[in-house]
Structures are given as C-alpha cells and as structure tokens.
Design a protein that fits this description.
Strand content: 5-15%
Order of helices and strands: EHEHHEHEHEEEEEHHHHHHHHH
Radius of gyration: 20 Å
Strand order of the largest sheet: 1-9-6-4-2-3
CATH class of the largest domain: Mainly Alpha
CATH topology of the largest domain: Dehydroquinate synthase-like, alpha domain
Number of strands: 9
Number of helices: 14
Helix content: 40-55%
CATH superfamily of the largest domain: Dehydroquinate synthase-like - alpha domain
Shape: globular
Length: 385
C-alpha cells in the first residue's frame, strides 16, 4: 500500500436540532466576537435566526455579512474580509451553501491581513495562520464543511481554487433540519453534486487516492443513492435529509483527500459562463465524462455501482460500468434535472469556447483517470449538447 495523508475537520457535530448548540461551541472555540458569513436568500428566509439567537444568548457579538452570491467573485471575498477586519472579529462562521462556506474560509484567512487573495490561488499557497472557523451547511451537496478548498470566480467567468490544509475548519456543524426547506430542484442538484464527488474521489488518479477516501466514497454513494429521491419528493423526510447531509459530508471528506477530476473541470466553464448551478453543471456532463473514462476505470465504476444502485450487483461486471452510467442518467432525469446543455440555453457554437476554458482547470484534470485533451473535451460537450 502506498503512503497517503488523510485530513479533515477537527470536530464534526451532527444531529437534528444541533444548531441550538452553536452559541456554546462558538463561545468556547471562536471567541466573543464573530462574523457570520451567509447570503441574502438565507437571511430573507430567516434560516439563520436560530443560530443568531443561540450566539447572542451565549454572549457573543455577531456581525452579519450577507453579500455572498453564487460562484462568488473576488470582490465579495474581499468585502467580507474587510468587514471582518473592521469589526475586529475573533472568529468566523460560514452559514449556507458551498459559496458561503467557501467565502468564510477565505475570510478567516484574509482577516488576519497577512496574505493577499491574489497570491494564494493554487495548491498549498495559503500558509496561514487564520482565525478560528466554523462551517454550517444548509445544503447537502458541496461537502465544503470538511474540505480544504475554496472556489472563487476571477475575471468574468474563470474559476480558481485556493487549496490548503489551513482552510480546513475547526468545527463542522451539520443539522439536517436546516435543509428541510430546500426547494426540490436544489435538493436534486446538490445531491447529484455530492454523488459526483464520491465517484471522482474513488477513481481519482491522484497519488493520494487512499483506502479511507474510497471507503467514505462508497458509504456516501450508499446514503445518497438510497435517499435522494425521498429527499426530493418529501423535503421534511427526516431520515432522508439526515442521510443526504451525512452522505455529502462523507463525499467531501473523500474528495478533500483524493481530489476530483474531469467532471468538475468541464462543469466549471458551464457555470462560469452561463451561471448554471454547480450541481446541475456536473450532472449535465457526468454521464459523458464517465463513458470517456470507462476505458481505463470501468472496473472501478463496476465496484461502486451497487453502492448507489444495489440492483446493479446482478449485472455482469463487464456490463456494469455502462449500466451505472445509464442508472445515473435516469436518476438525474427522475429527480427533475435538465438533461442536455441546450436545455440550459447553451448554443452549440459555444462548445469550443467551453472546451478551451475547461483545459485551464489543470488542478483538476491531472486527477482524471484517463488523460483528456481539448479535442476530447469538445467531444464530451458535443455528446452532452
């Protein structure tokens, strides 16, 4: 067995109603003055009010930053960090979806004033130290609450990642009740996103692909594949919501250590240029990337297929990878996601630009189990169109 390193959040707090503990946890580990980083939708829905009440009851002064947007641009990160410095906060709480948590990670780092955002893109460039950090997901998808990664939109459409162990939070607090009000289409897209994390972690060409990540990826697929339909159909299905949130975290822990690859690389330009939600962007290219990769990792797909779809255990191994792709395609359709790039308004003449931009995601493409050229990327986009 080759050497590997596995890292994750220091502490995970999981349970329905656990948001009521946030004040006590923050007082002990974040300090007396914190910034809560979230988005306007969370505030309008008053989803953060329970957290605020618990923090105030614990004697903690809270400054609220609610300017996070989807695919957050650099200016949002810098504005939040400036507010944190101005208010003299001692700790940071990211509350919301992946975008809010990604911004919070960078706020915890940049609020110290010792590093510049422009200098920390890439792997291992952020050195720290940072402020104490807690992340609270309100969607079951990104797994950002347990990853050392923050994605930022730079320029008009390009996405860049800050990847460093210093971004791993001190506490990840997961309360399934916070996900009950998620619309069905968000539940579907974020759930598929989490499944992609598990699939790509299991088959990653990273030298750090490891047995812990593979074990977590399998369990994530079991939980997500088993309950995504119930969570989409019935938003307050207690067991389904809990399993989705736990599965998304397991998938996050898996890919945080055995990184994702071409599905994400090809999804990023779709989201960057057309503002298609990240989970849906992944779903649109997923089956076509898997078919491309099956030439080199079909057996691995056959191994994980029954985790998500138990009936595929009866399919002969030689045919199981293709059956896995078909089952994933049907699942995306069943939970109501668009099936083709043209369904989300992408014209065919833009596919070459998408392929060109996908090749900029070298951080991700290096992990793909089969080398992928710009011509290959264009063929995949054409198949997805």
């Amino acid at each position: 067995m080759h050497p590997f390193t596995f890292s994750t959040a220091k502490t995970v707090v999981f349970g329905a109603g656990s948001i009521a503990q946030i004040g006590d946890i923050a007082r002990d580990q974040l300090g007396a003055r914190v910034i809560l980083v979230t988005d306007r939708g969370i505030v309008d829905a008053k989803l953060h009010e329970g957290a605020l009440a618990s923090l105030v009851a614990a004697g903690i002064a809270v400054t609220l930053f609610d300017g996070v947007t989807a695919d957050p641009p650099e200016k949002v990160v810098l504005a939040a960090a400036e507010q944190a410095r101005r208010e003299g906060v001692q700790g940071v709480i990211g509350f919301g979806g992946g975008s809010s948590m990604d911004v919070a990670k960078l706020v915890a780092l940049l609020a110290r004033g010792e590093e510049e955002l422009s200098s920390i893109y890439g792997i291992g460039q952020a050195k720290g130290p940072r402020l104490p950090l807690m992340l609270v997901p309100t969607t079951a998808g990104t797994g950002s609450e347990v990853t050392p990664i923050s994605i930022v939109t730079t320029g008009e459409a390009e996405k860049k990642g800050v990847v460093s162990p210093v971004l791993l939070p001190d506490i990840a607090l997961l309360d399934p009740e916070l996900t009950y009000a998620l619309p069905h289409h968000v539940t579907a897209a974020t759930g598929i996103d989490a499944m992609v994390h598990a699939i790509e972690a299991y088959t990653s060409a990273s030298a750090n692909n490891n047995p812990v990540s593979r074990l977590l990826a399998k369990e994530a697929l079991r939980l997500l594949g088993g309950d995504i339909r119930s969570a989409v159909r019935e938003g307050t299905h207690v067991e389904a919501r809990a399993n989705m949130l736990l599965g998304a975290m397991f998938a996050g822990q898996a890919f945080a250590n055995s990184p994702v690859a071409a599905v994400h690389a090809l999804a990023y330009p779709v989201g960057g240029h057309y503002h298609v939600p990240h989970g849906l962007s992944n779903a649109l290219v997923l089956p076509h990337v898997l078919r491309f990769n099956a030439e080199t990792c079909g057996r691995a797909y056959a191994e994980i297929a029954p985790c998500a779809f138990p009936w595929l255990a009866e399919v002969p191994v030689a045919r199981r990878a293709e059956a896995f792709v078909e089952a994933l395609t049907h699942l995306c359709e069943e939970v109501g996601l668009a099936q083709r790039l043209r369904d989300v308004g992408i014209p065919r003449e833009d596919l070459a630009r998408l392929a060109h931009d996908a090749m900029k995601q070298t951080r991700l493409l290096v992990n793909n189990p089969r080398p992928l050229s710009e011509a290959d990327a264009l063929s995949i986009y054409e198949a997805a169109w």
